[in-house]
Specification:
32% helix; 32 strands; binds adenosine-5'-triphosphate; 5-stranded parallel β-sheet; GMP Synthetase, Chain A, domain 3; alpha/beta; binds magnesium ion
Length: 638
């Protein structure tokens, strides 16, 4: 049934395959389960006796670290596994699978020496350095549950996660570095520990020598402890498939972050399958995801996915534009990168630069570029496709799902890429576009909430950490009367099943009774060639209910002015209609974004409506927000 090979798939063949994965999920996933090593192979695919909770491979026993590291260390010990590159500290080091195994085992022994065992939480607050990966894999090895908190999150955000996950041990480093600027982590961590109610047993500090460490009584030098534990045997612990592997908090774009809990066996199978069917996986190849280990892309496609597939993975500490905007492509050339994964926001940054930064390198090893995290606008998509000459595969998913919901799977080489759409529902995901009030499917061409019928496939969240009730209430009860998981995104599906994401359900604005997605208006704004980036929010209006307001970053800031403003408004009128015309176009140096690169529309909207912008603990660059505040004050005076 699911013999894909790498041969070209016709659209109809894929659709048959997808249907089979939905009609007979147990059968489909038991076959896929053979892609990983089990200490006890599962005989059952799924236990769905307590919906919406799905337990995949209920009688299987396995270990994530064994699949990511040990099995390749046994077969191909000298092959590269982890390539740690930092353009911040100008260092690069490659660890073979054998070396990765040795490091991970020593870290596992170090954790054990502190009393960390199966089910204990370990919070990892680290920059993009190899030790962060060793620590994650070491947790998986001994059945501890890691929770990685994006390095450089402010103390408030960190404290909230410390209290929620209640870690026995915290692993941190002296500092991170960003655009050449040292960011000391220790003071932030100490401040967070002062705010939190929970007390960890110990804090392991990795001293990179970037910032002085003020040692507290519970702090331990990580490298010394790991050295002392070298050569201690720690076998991977056999774990039930449903054993929690990690907790990861969502970005908090729309509200209080949710502690997404993931299992062990289902996650390993989902990743192994996705590397094969989606991400051009190949043992011995090199994978380069430019994300951060603090995000879901980092968990799935920097750490676990590529390693489970026997690939080397690049861990990159640095910016897309420093020391120069050619740095990504230089890494592609040097390491013969096979597949790359980045975010639209990075591409928009590069698009503003001289094209020679891209064309000057040998990119012949590259088979595909994957992008996810936010909508990929058409001009950026076209630019990067023309520049690279390889397929650009947009994939839509969420922290919750752990791997793509929508994309064009590998093999669908003849299926057209439709700009603005990530593609088709991925095998295993029963994607339905439904009416938000009735839960009934909407016809092709109509806007609906993107929902997924339960059970969610392997790899998706199994619950919210410590809060089963919130899991059920948040995701499965927002659409009435149906056992449907809500993504809280709007979409529209065409006759061929391609889905277009129109924005978040709370990003729809109501202009004089017409519902408009802010995403569509943003797309129209970015069709103007002078525009580099744009955000549109709905702002309260006495007469129309709401009116769109645009925030625009220009390629050349000196062009800002009334004439350009009018051109942009006309572009919207032309693309969508007069109704969607922004009531104002505001030129800003940058858009306020979360640390994961998502536009903080709710903050823009609040500021423009004169309200408090709310929780900003996840914001990336305060100056972007300050510029908006200043504009608002100036506008209010007029
Ligand atoms: P929170 O749920 O805490 O508000 P978040 O939704 O920003 O945070 P993530 O799980 O990182 O946290 O982001 C998932 C969301 O990102 C999706 O629901 C969708 O809105 C958007 N997204 C991801 N990939 C794409 C894509 N390819 N095209 C369009 N939107 C995307
Ligand atoms: Mg979300």
């Amino acid at each position: 049934m699911n013999e894909w090979g790498n041969a070209a798939l016709r659209l109809e063949d894929y659709q048959d395959l997808h249907r089979a994965s939905i009609a007979e999920p147990e059968r489909f996933w038991l076959q896929e389960a053979a892609r990983i090593d089990w200490s006890q192979a599962p005989t059952r695919g799924l236990d769905f006796s307590r919906p919406p909770f799905a337990r995949w491979f209920p009688d299987g026993m396995t270990n994530l670290c064994a699949n990511a590291v040990d099995r390749w260390a046994a077969r191909r010990p000298e092959d590269p596994a982890l390539i740690a590159v930092s353009t911040e500290t100008d260092t690069e080091r490659t660890y073979s699978f054998a070396e990765l195994l040795a490091q991970t085992t020593a870290w596992a022994a170090a954790f054990r020496s502190l009393g960390v065992g199966v089910g204990d939480r370990v919070l990892i607050y680290m920059p993009m350095i190899a030790e962060a990966v060793f620590a994650m894999l070491a947790c998986a090895r001994i059945g501890a549950v890691h929770t990685v908190v994006f390095g450089g999150f402010a103390s408030g955000a960190l404290a909230a996660r410390i209290d929620d996950a209640a870690p026995k041990v915290i692993v941190a480093a002296d500092a991170g570095s960003r655009m050449g600027r040292i960011i000391p982590y220790k003071p932030l961590l100490d401040e967070a520990l002062g705010m939190a109610d929970h007390r960890p047993h110990k804090v392991l500090m990795v001293d990179r020598g970037l910032a002085p460490i003020h040692w507290a009584h519970h702090d331990i030098d990580a490298r010394a402890l790991v050295e002392a534990n070298r050569h201690v045997e720690v076998a991977p612990v056999d774990l039930p498939s449903s054993h929690p592997s990690y907790i990861l908090y969502t970005s908090g774009t729309t509200g209080k972050p949710k502690g997404v809990q993931r299992d062990t066996g289902g996650y390993a199978v989902a990743l192994a399958a996705s590397m094969e069917h989606i991400f051009f996986g190949q043992p011995g190849g090199v994978f380069f995801a430019t994300s951060d280990i603090g995000w879901v892309v980092g968990h799935s496609y920097i750490v676990y996915g590529p390693l489970i597939a026997g690939m080397a993975t690049i861990l990159y500490e640095g910016a897309p534009t420093r020391p120069d905007p050619g740095v990504f492509w230089r890494l592609v050339e040097r390491h013969r990168v096979r597949a790359m994964f980045t975010a639209p926001t990075a591409l928009r940054l590069l698009k503003k630069e001289d094209p020679r930064h891209l064309t000057g390198y040998d990119r012949s090893s590259l088979k595909a570029l994957f992008v996810a995290g936010e909508p990929l606008d058409e001009p950026t998509s076209r630019w990067i496709a023309d520049s690279l000459g390889v397929p650009i595969l947009d994939n839509y998913w969420q922290t919750e799902t752990g791997w793509p919901i929508l994309t064009l799977c590998r093999g669908l080489t003849d299926a057209p890429v439709k700009p603005g759409s990530p593609g088709l529902p991925v095998y295993g995901f029963d994607v339905q576009l439904v009416d938000e009030a009735s839960g009934e499917p909407v016809p092709a061409g109509d806007k609906g909430v993107v929902a997924i019928a339960a059970p969610l496939p392997p790899g998706c969240l199994t619950t919210i950490w410590n809060d089963d009730a919130r899991f059920v209430r948040t995701y499965f009860q927002s659409i009435p009367g149906k056992m449907l998981y809500s993504t809280f995104d709007w979409g529209v599906q065409d006759e061929e099943g391609y889905t277009f994401i129109l924005g978040r359900t709370d990003d729809v604005i109501n202009v004089a009774g017409h519902r408009l997605g802010t995403r569509e208006i943003e797309e129209a704004v970015t069709t103007h060639p002078a525009v580099a980036d744009a955000a549109v929010v709905g702002v309260h209006d006495e007469i129309k209910g709401q009116t769109p307001v645009a925030f625009v970053v220009l390629k050349d800031a000196s062009r800002a002015g009334e004439a350009l403003s009018q051109e942009i408004i006309q572009a919207v009128a032309r693309e969508i209609g007069a109704l969607a015309k922004p009531s104002s176009v505001n030129f800003v140096p940058a858009l306020p974004k979360t640390r994961s690169g998502k536009v903080l529309r709710r903050a823009l909207q609040a500021i423009w409506e004169g309200r408090d912008p709310g929780d900003l603990t996840t914001i990336d660059d305060e100056t972007a927000l300050k510029a908006v505040l200043a504009l608002r004050r100036a506008a209010a005076k007029d």
